[in-house]
Amino acid sequence: MIEFIAHNLAPIMFATLVVFMLLGYPVAFALAANGLLFFFIAVELSPYAPDAITLSWPLLQALPERVFGTMANEVLLAIPFFTFMGLVLERSGMAEDLLETIGQLFGTVRGGLAYAVIFVGALLAATTGVVAASVISMGLISLPIMLRYGYDRRLAAGVIAASGTLAQIIPPSLVLIVMADQLGRSVGDMYEGAFLPGLILSGLYALFVFVVTIVSPKSAPGLPREALTCCEPSGARGVWQLGVLVAYSAAVATVVMRDTGIKAGADYAILAICTAVVVALVSALLNRFLGARRLVLSAVLTAAFAGAYVLLRESGHPTVGLMADIIAAGALYAFIAGGVERFTGMPLVSRMAERVTFVMVPPLLLIFLVLGTIFLGVATPTEGGAMGAVGAMVLAALKRRLEKNPARFSLSILTQATQTTAKLSAFAIFIVVGARVFSLTFYGINGHVWVEHLLTGLPGGQIGFLLFINLLIFLLAFFLDFFELAFIVVPLLAPAADKLGIDLIWLGVMLGVNMQTSFMHPPFGFALFYLRSVAPKTAYLDRLTGKRMEPVTSAQIYWGAIPFVVIQMVMVALIAAFPGMVMHYKSSAPASDPAAAQRQLDSLDAPASGLGLPAMPGLDDLPKPGAGL
């Protein structure tokens, strides 16, 4: 009996951990206690299974080094930076501005508010990476408006919760940082691989809303005309002017990107978006300050910057020349817009175009600051997170300065963001430390070998492995959140996946999408808890219309989440069926030519040593003492 236990200590240890967690013990302490308990048991049982147990008392001295090694992990340092960045932006009112502006943009379109929530959710995900901040801010701002205009409560709750979870898969996601660390892969590659699936998932959410508006139009009505406040003096919406500005900016960005040498990939998309955004911003700013009143000055500025662009290009300063090119393009658009307005009386840059540009430019530029520098290899994820944290504070301070509103940025906001960041970071680090203690024992009793044999022995090879682990993650997500899944389960899966020849970046993105469901399905869906905390629990009077509004029940929130959980699993299947949507990250890696390298080696006139070093002078060739040099 004792020998049987000694040879099967790994599955017993894993089963005990599951029991501890089901009993409700905190995961970090359950991991650490389980590791230490079974370390003592394993050492005592080691004489009965010397081939399976390699633990001894002196090995316990390695535990402090493992803990300090975790604390010194620079990759995990990105977690507090991105968390702080997201919290500062959320508390500075950026989410509120975005939701109000995009809601006005969609206007009377059926499902327009739901589309706005999805769009803003994706944008917040790319700037914050924090699910709680996204769900709570959108729940506070959008849910009352959606209820006011007659949205189905299940659809409204599901859209808000699901859009908030986009922060799990759209870079700079905290999940992707942890996944890359646990899988031993580059965070930059993980970000680039997840970029396209994140956008496709957002599109699937919008497609579902579109289907709902076709099948049940009353579930997602458009805004009434009287609710549209951003209009021209004539009453026109001014949306087509925004379309013209977007098309012009995109055309300029396409032309400019031809000279960068970047042809495709996530880095191309980020740089192109940044260029287009800056062109739109310069065009809107110059139109506001120049416009039809100063056509001559607009023409002079356009010519001056165009000439500077030519001179700087010829002098070998492409970056400065690029900026001159962008400013010249913006001045040209302002000149054209001013001329059109003067001679026809019709503005080419409407209020809607200005408002959308001024509201969307800050987060989009912050996306470039963070993701652009990471994708281009200029900064590590930790450095990118640090720049994002500083950029968030600068943007919040600028908003306070321009709007003269202390609520945009204050010491209180910084204090709250810092305290919340410290709590989340401590939570993550405690789980990591507990996982290190657990893994020290688990690997010492050949637990990794047991898991590897279990997974590689599944029928169906790679397909059977992928089906099993995705089903396992989906089921465990009912009880564990993404941090616990990433630190406990993923390290056990990686060796078997690597042995089966599965690309770990592809696997990490697939599991990252799957882990989104941990926020969405009961009983422990944290996104549902966040939304429940801000959704009305009792009947109330709408502050704008004065009508009595019924509360949102927990059952409505849960039922609203189910379709989006199904969509997330469809996305997992799409990633499995079309690996190219993730594997494109390899195309951005510098290509190597083995034949060219061999030709270079062959061309070297190598000496007998074969090291390619010049021949050393002989003793007779050295200068004699006293001889002139």
What would you say this structure looks like, in words?
- It contains 27 helices and two strands.
- With 629 residues, the chain is mainly alpha-helical.
- It has a two-stranded antiparallel sheet with strand order 1-2.
- A hairpin with a 6-residue loop joins strand 1 (540-541) and strand 2 (548-549).
- Helix 2 (9-22) packs antiparallel against helix 3, helix 7 runs antiparallel to helix 8 (131-148) and helix 7 packs parallel to helix 16.
- The longest helix has 34 residues, at 411-444.
- It is globular.
- The N and C termini lie far apart (86 Å).
- The model is unreliable at 590-601 and 603-629 (pLDDT under 50).
Compact description:
69% of the residues lie in helices and 1% in strands.
Shape category: globular
How many helices in DSSP terms?
27
The proportion of residues forming helix, as a percent range, comes to: 55-70%
Strand content: under 5%
| End-to-end CA span | 86 Å
Mean pLDDT: 77
List the helices and strands in order.
HHHHHHHHHHHHHHHHHHHHHHHHEEHHH
What is the strand tally? 2
**Rg, nearest Å:** 29 Å
Structural class: mainly alpha
For the largest beta sheet, what order do the strands appear in spatially?
1-2
Q: Give the biggest beta sheet.
A: 2 strands, antiparallel
Enumerate the spans where pLDDT stays under 50 for 5 or more consecutive residues. Answer: 590-601, 603-629
